[in-house]
Amino acid sequence: MLKFYHTPLSVNSRRVWVMLLEKQVEFEEIVLSLQGDQFDAEYLKLNPFHHIPTLVDDDFTLIESLAILDYLEAKYPTPSFTPKDAKAIGIMRMIELVTVNELLPTTLPLLKQRVGLPEDPKQPLEAVYQKITTIFDFYQKYLGDNPYLVGEQITLADIVVGTVIPTLKYMNISLENHPQLQDWCERLMLRESWKKTEQKPEYIEASYAKIKAILTQKNQ
Question: Domain GST N-terminal: where (predicted)?
């Protein structure tokens, strides 16, 4: 049986969690607290970078969430979350990478503000919001009038973006000026995999002290 090491609050973990549920794959869920569990000697044997998530399939260990998504897609091809057309595959992968390389780093100053850390003068919030608008414009351009980001069928792009955007409401980021993206997000939130992995607001609020401690430690 697959072993899935993760923490429910992590968007990196959630995208794999959603994928496992969408694929209806049986797996053992191992929750790490990130208050030291990730530095446990046994876990470091699996993931020497002490990050999450980690997937273990018998004697095979895989880290990095995008790599895990590709592995699950190849090993469990039904239902498929990868389009057939070459251009569509390129768009899907591009959207995944924009999310990981552009959106997530851009929102970090807002997360720091939310948990009570001082604003970084090198990253003014006005510029942060402008960058997020640019990214949302990019998503909405490809979404258009389609039900999903890469056309008629849900793909890995929807899983990657769709597990990040719902968390942004806790940083006062709105989709009000991106109605198509808002409708798309609401459709995803109706899926059972999104419902099962959605964390209660009170749980998220209670986690801010832990997140603050982790971010503070990283900056030291």
Answer: 1-80
